[in-house]
Amino acid sequence: MTSANKRIVIPPRVTIPIGPQHPALKEPGMFKLTVEGERIVDAVVNIGYNHRSIEKIGENNTHLQNLYLASRICGICSATHNGNYAQAVEFAAEAEIPERAKFIRTLIWELDRIHSHILWLGVAFHEVGFDTAFMLSWRDREIVMDMLENISGNRIHHDMNTIGGVRRNISDAQKEQMLKGFDKLEERVAFYRDVAIHEKTFWNRVDGVGMLEAPVAKKTSAVGPTGRGSGLKVDVRFNDPTQAYIPMMDTGDFEMILSDRGDVAGRAVVRVIETIEAINMSRWLLNNMPDGPIRERVRPRIQPNEVLARHEAPRGELIHYLVTNGTNKPDRWKVRAPTYNNWTSMAHCLRGDYLADAPIILAAIDPCYSCTDRVVIVDGNDETMRLVSLDNLRIENNMWHKEHPRRE
Amino acid sequence: MSDTKADEITEHHPAPREGHEAEYELLDEMIGDLKDSLIEEGTYVHKQPRRIFVQVHPEKIRNVVQHMLDRYAMWQFITVSGRDLGDDLQACYHFVINDRKIAITFRLNVPRSKPEHPTISDLVPAAEFIENEVRELFGIVQVGHPNVRRIELPEDWPATEYPMRKDWEDPRGLMKKSRTTGRKEGV
């Protein structure tokens, strides 16, 4: 056979749309993955399916109304939006809030982080087909959900903050109850940390998957656990502390959790250790909580001012840029949710990995679509499109991994 | 608020030098290096700790960002906020210098009749999504943007309507009927 009639077989390039109904969490977002065989060669992220023009609505609302609107931006991290808007208005009014209010506000933020991180861990277990750990971790998440319900009255949408302080106080009985809950929770989270690190079912699926090297993470401005999983020192609690984080960081007992792995495993380790750290922070906040009033009266008309309020949400740095104009309504209110910055690095994470790993890579940044916004699988050769539902994709992917047990 | 007259009220609140030494040191360095790119009015250190606001000539934004990237390793990009100031449209580029833990906002004003300024998406790839969003919602065009596409609004949205501008009217009139902004129909 001469070289002229040798047939070279090139695997066809297929573009696969995943979404708009989400591939990882049950929210809308669309990803176009171009695949060669099982390898992803290109990825396009398409967001905007959940645009509700909250910023425009907010310009016609009073600051107090916006506080509740802000908490409705996102279900998981509602306390962060709510609290960050409140502190933005207080910065603009140059109002000081009572010490106890600062501690309660920070406590709600930390409890929110604990429940969000355990939720993510459960989703990650689910995406790799480890459903036992998923169900167990979500069972133990109920401990912190009950705490939140106990002190705020709601499981989600806590709405604890008001302009000038917080709305509900924490009694001594609640404090004792919570301290007891933290002991149980810490023991359980330490168990899930060991499961995540030592259990092969999970570790082999995330080790070396979805690499985001530190220089690329810097270029795309990765934030939160995604950035810290690549070794970037980005944590607003340490770099730009507000509220009760200032006395907390002065003690020097707490440190920023970093990992230089850069893969999904790195992000998982950062999150799970951060949960334990958040439990310790919450305990510190409860034990050092000063007595006093929980609310300071702030006049509804806020002087003209422009403020950039930063806060470390569970997913990363949350920004509220607020311009006030002397009335009780904002002139401009810009919300930058952490997921928005992590989208840019997503295409890089997906490139070069197996299609079967796409759901866990997408889930690894803990995307929040309400905060920001689908995945399409497309055939590059004949441009055919195959729409896959998330559940089918996950079943197919787990089957694929069963047939190809070891990669290297 | 009480000690200033109504016509002197401004949203700029410069901080005293005491207590903000690190911010003023950085701002003085920047004014020294980038004298012809910055506009004095609107460039100040804010009373809130660790915040600097800088007004930039729109056509010089690339020089400023490149200089900051080279000299201070200002790699952490936050976002771009658009603003409607009436005759002008404003884009605020928010960055953080992580080594000094200072957040800097570069503001640039472009005339409403010709809202154009050079893009920074090729210098800062993280700005790609948000610059597209600002173009959609405010109609501020970033000349030379590498990947122009729709981000937030639906594909069939009219090309000349920019919903975040103050004079944009909701064709369905929903904003007018709302309880907080006006009378409901028939009341």
Question: How would you portray this structure in words?
Answer:
Chain A has 2 domains: 11-50 and 339-403, Enolase-like, domain 1 (2-Layer Sandwich); 54-303, Cytochrome-c3 Hydrogenase, chain B (Orthogonal Bundle), CATH 1.10.645. Chain A has 16 helices and 9 strands. Chain A has helices at 54-59, 63-71, 78-93, 99-127, 131-152, 172-198, 200-206, 214-219, 224-228, 236-239, 245-251, 264-287, 338-350, 358-364, 369-372, 390-403, and strands at residues 13-18, 30-36, 39-46, 161-162, 165-166, 305-313, 316-324, 330-336, 376-378. Chain B is α/β, with parallel strands linked by helices and 187 residues long. Chain B has one domain (6-152): NADH:ubiquinone oxidoreductase Nqo5 subunit (Beta Polymerase, domain 2). Helices cover 21% and strands 26% of the residues of chain B. Chain B has 4 helices and 7 strands, in the order H-E-E-H-E-E-E-E-H-E-H. In chain B, the strands form 2 sheets. Chain B has a 5-stranded mixed β-sheet with strand order 1-2-5-4-3. Chain B starts with 20 loop residues before the first helix and ends in a 10-residue tail after the last helix. The interface between A and B is large, with 43 and 44 residues.
